[in-house]
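Shipment paperwork, digital attachment
Item: protein structure file
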Amino acid sequence: MSCARRAATNPTWSFHTSSAWVTKPKGLEALETADAVFAALAHPARRQILLSVHYRGTANAGEIARRFECSWPTTSRHLATLVTSGLLNVSRQGRTRVYSTNADLLRGLLAQWSEYFE
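Attachment content:
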């Protein structure tokens, strides 16, 4: 039986098309968020960037790049990963991108995960 037929006959079965999930089992979105956050935190440079922005309150891309020894393209990729995961928020002030942390996301995720181990 094809994935499409399974998805049509069983709403908890999902498959991925080129652009979107046809159906999502309950809780899959939360797991995807957790995966993105944990993947973003897996690299030491991204953890350092996140902590640096958190302690400063906000930082623009240039300030972040100057603080770390990575090249600009590498820093830019790290920032994009942190923004995509939801750990960093980005806003524009003129031509400057200003980053701030989304500490609530991380706190909520850690609280949710700690429940599994109680």
